[in-house]
Fold this protein.
Amino acid sequence: MLAAVVALIVAAGCGLTGKDDTPAAAVAAPTSAEPTFELETPSPEPTTESPSPTPSRTKPKTAEPTQPAFWSQLPDCAHYDKTKAVAKSKVKTSLKSAAARTYWNSEAPQLKLNYPLVKAVAWQESGWQSNIHNCDGGAGVMQVMPATTDFINQRFGLTYDEAKFADNTYLGANYLAWMTKWVGDKYFKSTNYNLSASKCKTSSSWCLLNVVIAGYNAGQGGIEAAAETKTLPNPQYVAAVRSLMTRCQCDKY
């Protein structure tokens, strides 16, 4: 019998401040307990006959998202602004463009993002809604924090504005790229920064892709705190994004 306790978790933004090559502490860790799942094996009933074999529980090829996104049921402190939401077909085009860019032109030109990762993070964060705002200040499609905008603009000499939906997608992707290099250098001694899911045993293992996803939500500080035990600070968030990478409602747009 499968007993599940599901908690609605408010997805946090990922703000940073800082400049040059030294990343500043990120703010935004999940603010509520994550759901856990326990599998309980029932005791066999007394019988005089040979018991029938227990049907095996096969794991589906693609798991459903395990953490509800905050936008699926907005908390009181979140809101929609008065602007008209950008059509999701346009958001998709912008996300694809953002995923295809090279963000480390001189220091790590081999570092490449991928569209499944960018689109999945964006869907988990906002459902691709350009006019939604989280309680912590996260804005738009990628739920970019103002402090993250400041950090990315200062670090890379840019002038992005998170209120503009195209800039928002580039900011979110740029932050994923920054997180990839920081995590890859610090914890994996990576040279190619391979974000393939095939490099991870499971969606909860300590691998580059999972830690980058976790860092987008929990921030640099959340990853540093979890690194000692190599346990993801937000495994349910990571599992949700990993699931959306392969099967997402957004794929219909």
